[in-house]
Amino acid sequence: MLYGRMSSMDLRSGEIQPCDEIEIENDRAKFSEVIGTQHSSWKKISEIKITIGLTLKSKPASHWIFLFLSSTVMLVAFTASSLLSRAYYAGGGRSYWIISWAAVAGWPLIPLFSIPFYIFMENSLSPVTLKLLTWFVVLGFISFIDNLFFAWAYAYLSASTASLVASTSLVFSVLFGYFIAKNKMNLSSINASVIITASTIIIALDSKFDKIPGVTSTQYALAFLWDILGSALHGLLFALSELVFINILGRRSFHVVLELQTMISFFAFLFTTIGVIINNDFHGMRLEGEVFEYGKSSYYIIIVWTAVTFQLGVLAGTAVLYLASTILAGVLNATRVPLTSIVAVILFHDPMSGFKILSLFLTLWGFASYTLGHANGKSDP
To answer: What one-character-per-residue DSSP string does 17-81 give?
Structure first.
């Protein structure tokens, strides 16, 4: 998924069109005169209302409807995908390959969604050079390893713990974005990185009380490590994807973002499928279904919906990052962490100790610091 910002969209061409900046600046000047005569408390409220009004006015209604739908789908889909992965293991699933394969098996959903851009909006496919194809393979391989690490993590960590540890992806996104994509790093980014790192350390200190029954200390420690490594690869994937999109593809059109995401998902699917075949896990899938604790039909429902929800999350996340910014994606990520934790406690009876509650609080604090800092600075990482 990639970073991007959109002013307004011509629905016929799909390309970005400039907003009426003069009209907005005139409104801003008029409103500034009004709030200048008010007391400080009411002035703050007026400023917030005016900012919201000007923001809404800067885009057509269709933009906000699409952004709302994309945000909702991203939040629900990624939360559901995480919980389904844990349900696979809780029901007796044992293969890391199968659950990581399920995450990318739904990759055709993205090109299916892209079809209207080429049929009705007269867009053309981006030419594929050897250099671009090489990048597709590299990014697909990183995505494949990333999914495999997360699959290992969910095998031995509770869903709530796995989601909290995975929040470190923001830290790695900031670091790799700074060194690779040359994004700006400000105090809010550094502060958020330190706070989220501290929350991860707190979770590690609580390992004695947080382990799933039957999981050894070694398995827990390795799963914790895989989760962090997966988060690191996730941040690296974001930075490299942004680099490819800007420096090689050179266009900021939504259908081009979907093209890049399609190729990354396809090669991730290809690499994962090879691993599943070598490990003979397609045959093992049938055997697992026969002895699955929740029933054979539930087993295949979990596999199918893991594939669907993960790709819907990717698709919706791509739309959010393109229509809004990485800031909004960060807010949704922050919202997903407590949502996943709460649902996991209800469905899987995950332990919720004082350490984990403190870690959850620090994670939200870190995301809030990051979001507010970049919102005030009006810059993306």
So the answer is: E---HHHHHHHHHHHHHHHTTS-HHHHHHHHHHHHHHHHHHTS-HHHHHHHHHHHHHHHHHHHHH
